[in-house]
Amino acid sequence: MWNVLLSFSGLVALIQLLFLPFFPESPPYLLLQKEDKAGCLKAMKQLWGEGNYHTEFDDLMKEKAITKGTKIMNVLEVLRERSVYPQLCTMLLLLLSLQLCGLNIFETANLQESIIPYVSLGVSISELISIIFCSSIIDRFGRRTLLCCGYLLMALILVLLETSLLLSDQFLWLRYCSVILIFLFIIAYGLGP
User: Fold this and answer.
1) Which of 6, 32, 43, 120 could be stapled to 24 by a disulfide with Cβ–Cβ 3.0 to 4.6 Å?
2) What is the domain count for the chain?
3) CB atoms within 10 A of CB 88
4) Which residue range is the domain that position 143 belongs to?
5) Contact 160, 174 (CB under 8 A)
6) Whether 131 contacts 190, CB under 8 Å
7) Could you tell me how many helices (H) and strands (E) the chain has, helices first?
8) Which of 22, 54, 72 lies at the terminal end of a domain, its last residue?
9) What is the pLDDT of the chain when averaged over all its residues?
10) Where is the signal peptide (predicted)?
């Protein structure tokens, strides 16, 4: 019944996708990244109700002033920064340990047992690609856009994955499509949610 459980996460993603457009952008994002003061105040009122938010707004303005001279680093610059090596090592260990959690979806897709380790390696590479890609585009598009696109892609990929798994006994080539869809699902998850 794992496929029902997998479909349930798609249902939750679809519900979030339907309600996400009704929520405003994050006030710090609007002020610090977009430099939209009016939008920031409007988002604060929308999120927290009517009231006086000048203290919070002033705190954000102070943060903006402090970070004004700070350069936003890209992925390669972060990798060259020695002070983040402990956090980077921790993150890489967590990603690598995920591969030991016993994903048996590849056995369910009736893949040859000899290629399953390579497919697991592909999953790790997909996770790494999504992390690098997301960290480089999040400032350009914002979290809300990435969440919407990520959930939409995840829902579409889950429908295609369920279909390919159901038909994999009739069409052997769909087994490999299932693997590709799993890679795409992981990349879509890493981009948004």
Assistant:
1) 43
2) 2
3) 13
4) 76-191
5) no
6) yes
7) 10, 0
8) 72
9) 79
10) 1-17
